[in-house]
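Sample 3 of the quickstart, ligand GLP:
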Amino acid sequence: MTGDFCAQLILQADSPLPLYYQLQAKIKSLIDAGFLGCGDRLPSEREIAAQTQVNRLTVRQAITALVNEGVLTRKRGLGTFVAPPKLEHGLTKLTSFTEDMHKRGLKPSTRVLSLAVQPVEKKVSLLLGLGAHEDVIVIERLRLADDKPMAFEVAHLPCRRFPGFLALRVDLALASLYDTLRLHYGIEFTRASETLEARAASGREAELLGIPSGAPLLARERTTYGQGDEPIEYVKSLYRADRYRFMYEVIK
Ligand code: GLP
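Result:
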């Protein structure tokens, strides 16, 4: 297939589009068409340059753009490979991380980084409908799928709504937070309001998620409501943009 792939790499010298961009689009469309599959090695920069008659810097520029997009992945000393397809997330379904991963046939796991009671920040107090001097339970977790980092989450729960939460000593490395709130406090999640934006990973975030500093992240903020439209949690989740794709339905 690699030979076929190379033979298809034909660019148009008279096109107004820059060569690197043409090459980037061509490689992507050949992967979409199945000329190379997940885990297949891309021909080397040298081979692609020879086939397309463009210089290696241009080839590298196209490949780097595809690596940043999450289409390709570089493995030091081995070459460049087709990345696994991104996971799709149904934004219209109110699911927990655990449910989400199970649906995709992936094994969720969690590392609890910290769990503490803290005075609420102004912004969070407004979202959770709390007074300025109330406390929140703050839970920092690294979420993994098939043992690989997927997201870093910081959840804030109103202390007064969840009395004795710390004393429960629930191991959140093993238990789902949503299951815990359902089981111990009778919460029924009814809806969530979310925002989603792209940003670059800071040093700490990158280290936790196993990506280079500055790599793209999908930053999602969720306020989740229970019975009577009571705000239950405010969560900031940072997903690795190379592993996650959000999907949502649009209706008339
Ligand atoms: C998702 C949501 C979070 C929520 C979490 C609960 O990741 N974005 O807002 O806190 O699920 O997940 P779990 O029940 O698996 O702990």
